[in-house]
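Retry 2 of 3 after timeout on previous attempt. Resubmitting structure tokens to design endpoint.
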């Protein structure tokens, strides 16, 4: 560890505490502390939810489980969370928003006390507190293990340091501190993921077996998409159809801000793609599919134009898709979306 390394680590913890102290000025009552007064924008809520699924325990424990047991890790962890979140978004989110706006319910525990009684609230509160003691302790220990491995910090001091910083900014700033520190960590994660793609790799270091678009190789793509009225994530599995053609099966989940029909959009589709040659190449092809938003069917079709940069064992793609979108009962409308994807061989 150099002096610069220590400066970066120290600066990170100082910024986290600083965010908490700044957020303290936005807390005026209980509603501000627990719900930020209902003023958190949708995109910041989405980023915070995404980052809440990450902690050092993923890189210390979950990575080891995935290495030893492979896909089982995804099935019992990520897949179940995804299903639960998807069900919750459609079944509970709107109802919870009505409880907050019409009845002033601030937290799930407050709802239990109103709907049932105080003992019901206390049972869930005490049982949840016991679970959180184990959960948070495991995460603090995981961070301490990373600090010991990278910086030689003793485990006990690592636990005390991370625990103190977390308690300070959460206690001072409430939900505002939570979502803003999540956003800061999201920016750091995005930079860390993107950085390897900017490092030049000698052509000789990329063999035919490392190429994502190899003629006999199926590959997986995951990324973010942006339209004028929505932002979301999408995933594809691309199957080879010879040297330069691929057939893809796509799934997407978007948060829309359409003033006429806002709500989550979930859909899927098919993509036929012609790919170029070389480590940097253009690819293009038609794409189409069906989605639903608030029980309204949406049909879309367009033509994707993308640029792909191959690296050793993976690739990154940036694309533009002009399209026509037709909601049930409405005339087709022109549209477009931009997508940034990462490609991995299967």
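Retry 2 succeeded. Sequence:
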């Amino acid at each position: 560890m150099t002096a610069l390394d220590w400066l970066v680590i120290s600066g990170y913890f100082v910024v986290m505490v600083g965010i908490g102290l700044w957020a303290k000025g936005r807390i005026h009552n209980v509603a501000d502390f627990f719900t930020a007064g209902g003023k958190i924008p949708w995109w910041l809520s989405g980023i915070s939810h995404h980052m809440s699924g990450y902690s050092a325990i993923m890189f210390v424990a979950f990575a080891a489980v995935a290495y030893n047991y492979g896909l089982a890790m995804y099935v019992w962890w990520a897949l179940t969370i995804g299903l639960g979140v998807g069900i919750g978004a459609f079944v509970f989110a709107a109802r919870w928003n009505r409880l907050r706006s019409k009845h002033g319910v601030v937290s799930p525990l407050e709802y239990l006390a109103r709907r049932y009684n105080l003992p019901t609230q206390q049972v869930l509160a005490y049982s949840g507190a016991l679970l959180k003691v184990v959960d948070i302790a495991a995460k603090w220990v995981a961070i301490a293990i990373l600090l010991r491995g990278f910086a030689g910090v003793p485990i006990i001091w690592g636990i005390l340091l991370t625990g103190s910083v977390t308690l300070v900014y959460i206690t001072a700033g409430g939900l505002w501190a939570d979502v803003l520190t999540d956003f800061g960590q999201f920016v750091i994660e995005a930079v860390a993921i993107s950085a390897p793609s900017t490092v030049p790799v000698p052509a000789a270091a990329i063999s035919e077996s490392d190429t994502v678009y190899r003629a006999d190789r199926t590959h997986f793509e995951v990324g973010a998409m942006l339209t004028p009225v929505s932002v979301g994530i999408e995933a594809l599995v691309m199957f080879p159809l010879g040297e330069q053609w691929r057939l893809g099966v796509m799934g997407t989940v978007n948060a829309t801000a359409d003033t006429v029909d806002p709500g989550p959009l979930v859909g899927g589709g098919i993509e036929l793609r012609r790919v170029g040659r070389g480590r940097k190449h253009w690819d293009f092809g038609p794409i189409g599919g069906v989605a639903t938003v608030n029980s309204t069917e949406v049909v879309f079709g367009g033509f994707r134009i993308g640029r792909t940069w191959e690296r050793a064992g993976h690739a990154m793609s940036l694309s533009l898709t002009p399209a026509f979108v037709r909601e049930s009962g409405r005339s087709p409308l022109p549209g477009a979306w931009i997508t940034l994807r990462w490609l991995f061989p299967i």
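Attempt log closed. Strands lie at 219-227, 230-240, 245-256, 263-275, 280-293, 296-311, 314-327, 333-345.
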